[in-house]
Structures
1.
Amino acid sequence: MGSPFNIIFYANDSAKAAAVAAQCFQLVDSLNAIFSDYLPNSELSQLSANAGNTTPVTVSPAMLDILLRSKEAYKKSNGAFDITIGPLIKLWRQARKNNTFPDDSTVQKIVLLTGFNNVHIDTNTKTVLLTQQGMQLDLGGIAKGYTAQQVVDFLTQNGITQALVDAGGDIATSGAPPSAKGWTIGINVPETEEDLLSKKIMLHNMAVATSGDVYQYMEHNGKKYSHITDPRTGYGVTSQRNVTVIAPDGATADWLATACSILPISEAKTLATNSLLGK
């Protein structure tokens, strides 16, 4: 998924630890082969390639699960989080690469290719139909957190209950390290790459994700456009903001960090509060 992946855990048996670590990375590779939009043969890429066809596509259990979670996130965020944003992500990636800002007519044309109402999920047949030709799904705002949580859950199932999994900054944890109250996690100072806030997070059996524009953005006419794109307008958000969300699981922390980067602060706080309370 285009990010480094790190796993830390404690075990009493080094041989078991090595074997379980290898299994963890096999799990990561298998999920990457499902969710990645960088791989042309991934399940996600193949699903997008069938957009506009009339025959539903049978999907894997992991894909079905993450699509249902994404649908729920779309509804809760009133469209601020939308995995059908793929064509816009592609447009802005190319714009940043070429340092060429697209005109508004081009952006609005691409916006017409998005919309979760064009994703039909049948849980009975485990099939998905993308009704709009040219649609592309992008799981960049949820897949890393989802994968980190899957690895933590796998470790727990194998008797390893003190673990931290870091998927490109999306972090999921189980129990605290030995003789510690939790995992100490630093958050970068807004608009900096290396500096950390003086106050650290102490976390266990929870997940945390941070979204910001320090690494990827584009400047145009004196305005800074984040790589975090508002699916409702087609443009990157211009309110420079670091958003850190702590949640019970990695997928929830991941998508909330993205959605709360897009929404006005008052709406973001309401969304986060309601989501974490199960509303």
Note: The chain is about 40% helix and 15% strand.
2.
Amino acid sequence: MKQPGKRPEPEAAMPKTKKTLGWGSVATIAVLAVVVGFVAGSRFGNVLSFLHFGGQNSNLPTQLDLSSVQDVYQKLRDQFDGNLDAQKLIDGAKKGLVQASGDPYTVYFTDQEATQFLSDLDGKFSGIGAELDKKDNNLVVVSTLDDSPAQKAGLQANDIIAKVNDQDATSWSIDQAVAQIRGDKGTTVKLAVVRNQQLKEFSIVRDDIINPSVKYEVTSDNIGYMRISRFAETDTVTLAQQAANQFKQKGVKGVVLDLRGDGGGYLGAAQEIAGLWLKDQVVVQEKRGDTVVDTLKSGGNPLLSGIPTVVLIDGGSASASEIVAGALHDHNAAKLVGEKSFGKGSVQQIEQVGSGGQLKVTIAKWYTPNGKNINKEGIMPDVIVKPTDADIAAAKDVQKDKAFDLVKNQ
């Protein structure tokens, strides 16, 4: 699937044809953002028809009776001792309506928040460079961006945010946490996190972050190493194709694809990346309820097909990362090494709201080629490798070492 159209300008409305998988729900602590990704394609015509003309909620009234909301507003307006902002009240009502869905990945954005969301997904923002999500009612670090202040300070995937600037954050929403943790370059935020039942404290200086989504190299023993930190619209496919071409030209003995800490991104990018190994094969299937609404296949030019490949995953690998890992694994194109992935098995789409703002709404669940939905379960690697505290302290990457060993011996 190709992604049609251009990325919107900063003040432009986001097209309906954007879907997300990863970052659509995992908050990038810096500015706004969150998980796991967008997808775009002409196929959305069919999906939108399904959404607009029937579905799981077709029994609900076409118009809600909001007279009680107006009654609350009138009492608030008449009795509140303080200054109210009409636009903030409207935005708050929209956010509350959407939040009542009970789905952490369905979110109302103001236009400014939506613009920031896209900037974060493309890797350009100010903050500490971490991704947050809600898991078991806890605010959890999903991953840290490469070379970010969060990573340099020592934050890790699955750290539970307990305090922000000495404030109890245990009951906060993702948006509340993001609002407190983000900030201008050069300023400091204090975080207290729970890791392995121990409380750890960090003081992190915020910075501007511009981070390419793909890094690659060919090692001295002729192994291709490709690290994807997110599935962005702007550079992921281009850089990954450059990497694949270089690997092919140098005749690498094998490939290590590192998706650790990759919180997801655009589904179209994930589909293209899987297509570097798979030829005309199912990458992922989308369902609403029991109804299949789309089946995405790889293209016809798999540059890395047949080359021994190991994919690295961990608890920070979410959504689009899990789609790629699941597809390569189900088609026996790669072995998985590391730790169980995050477990985000839903797809989001952005809808422009006529009165202003944008709605990121869960429209489907996705399934691996073998028919598995990994939501809240994750993907278990073939070879489990968990670094010890001593490994981390010594900066020893035992997962990566194991992946290279396996590739060399395939």
Note: The longest helix spans residues 86-99.
3.
Amino acid sequence: MKVFVTGKLSQKAFDALSQFAEVDAYEADDPMGRADVEARLEGKDALVCILGDQVDAALFKLRPQLKLVANVAVGYNNINVADANQAGVLITNTPGVLDNATADLAFGLLLAAARRIVEGDRFVRQGLWTGWKRELMLGAELNGKTLGIVGMGRIGKAVAKRARAFGLNIIYTRDGDDKKTDDILKETFAATRVELHDLCRRSDFISVHCPLKKETHHLLGKAEFDLMQPHCVLVNSSRGAVIDEKALIDALEKKKIGSCGLDVFEQEPAVPKRLIALDNVVLVPHIGSATRETRAAMDELAVQGLIEAFSGQLPANAVNPESWEKFSAKLKTPASK
């Protein structure tokens, strides 16, 4: 079988994949253009791709022999899963292995925005510091305050664990309505489930961890920012379009909220000039999973799922297991779960 990889893999993952398949890899730092991806996919059975690669019906129609797409990310909003199901293409992602790294980054953004760390760094570097002053760079203390977590999945829980160590009280929103999960979260983190607008009203800090899908696009917009407290610190390390970026900038400029820390942006890598101009924001370039350990683990999980699928076993990290029968038929092997 033949595999095309649109980004560099860890050596361990690359070696494992190379032992299993013929690998064509693009290893430059710059992202590939769509036309180049389409050309390199000719004759390939599988695609190992990164978040910026768009995968849709047009690609499946052009390369009908494609059987599997391994997305080296936990989010897969770059892939049209309905189109994949129609084409009988199995999609996998890399959940679980990046929870701690992303939670660390989210909490780092929260601390940096709350305590004005980046602003203070600029202040020193610009030679503006003339000595200790009582009112200089006053920020917000975390202990005893309320953190609202939007999306209490794996990463949300990892953030909650860190938040408890800092003495924060936790409220949250999440999909699903099973009482058992809420009871476990109550027992583990002393966390209380609330509605989104209630979370916006009550939180001193808000951290966003929900996936981007139709229901969560612009989940936080003008109406939600109008409910937030003027000192509220907002952090987003999920997907940029979960937040209405224009409404966020308006809220920051008008001081309807205190500050924010962003790892993701609505039209990344483009960042609005109005956002860059603000002092009360911390901006980083989508590095939530950017630790050596986590990126290697993501690569290895992507390759593991691919090898399992082409060996006739439904991988645990399959996004669309409903396509397994069609995938198996394309593979011409008996379906096995």
Note: The chain is about 40% helix and 15% strand.
4.
Amino acid sequence: MSARNHGWKILTVSFIITGVKYEYLDDHRSFVQFCGEIAGADCIAFDTEFVSEDSYRAELCLIQIAAGEHLAVIDPLAIKDLGAFWQLLTEPGRESVVHAGRHELCFCLQAAGCRPSGLFDTQIAAGLIGLEYPAAYGTLVAKLLGKSLGKGETRTDWRRRPLSHRQVEYALQDVIHLKPIRDVLSERLAAWGRTEWLAVELHDWQTDVENAEFHERWRRMSGLSNLGPRALAIARELWQWRDGEAQRRNMPARRILRDDLIAELARGATDDMQRIQAIRGLNRRGQERQLAMLAAAIRRALELPAEACPQPLSRAVNRLQYGVLGQFLATALASICRGRQVAPSLVGTVDDVRDLIAYHLASRRPDAPSPSLARGWRAEVVGRAIEDLIEGRMTIRVGDPASEQPLILEPRAEVPS
């Protein structure tokens, strides 16, 4: 399944599966030729297959592309330099369509150093027209296109070669329908006046991914929420040591040292090796060298001046005091979202509601950052309604208990004086 070079002419071998013609590209010259052929496309839909459980970074194993009349599979294990494709995605004036595209975005950021041009994520767009979030690709194919996808190959090791026609067909399913789904979603978003909502959401989402992947990645560890500055300094040092070890050994960081053990070491705040070794999970034989490196990392954090320790990511006020109220208003949020045909889980969480309550009720500096539910389209959908409930300008009652939306929000009736 390869493209052969016969003299000066490149012959790309094509295949037909389930009535669809596609190209399988596993040599550099045919790959570059293909990139040239799709350079004029105004929309490139793409998906990837990767394996992440055995290496430091996810290993890219396959790229599926649908652009205009072109449908292709690129084999990154055979073609080492994929720069032409990633650069193509970043050129202005072109839209890139993905589904749940965090990994696709990260691959592009790592390879090209910038975002794909005009990225459109069908999963996020679907949430903005009231479909479930996060919706599976097959769900969107069924609900928006009235088609069903074949199942199988979910446990494929995409690193193995050769791939069977069945495996390639399964991979291509993930890209064939992306452009039609995008068209349906775009039409509905435009009809409902939500195109700008999607643009803002995609921009913010990509910024969040960039920050998580390339800036202060250590803060993504679990178990850090209640740590003070000194403990956070220890967690940061341990994370940096673990990350360096994972890169050097090309293995997942969690296999070097789990997040929960880092959090436990941070809380313990000691570089005494006997006390470190007493922690369950760190008392295996043959770990003396690792224990010494852990102690050294902790010691570096303990010796930092106080002003050099990282600060907790603070909220407006302690949101725990609004536990019951936050839970109640989160139910109201879900009801409001369903009425406005927006996926509640895309709009916000219980913690986001508590942040809004805290922001609204607490005395705050004029320059204090507003919570997510008080900004942009989220404020339009739910933020102002929740504030009206808090202030008593709106009430909530039970309508039809058997209805999918039993809660009714309505303006508070004026009480005659």
Note: The longest strand covers residues 43-51.
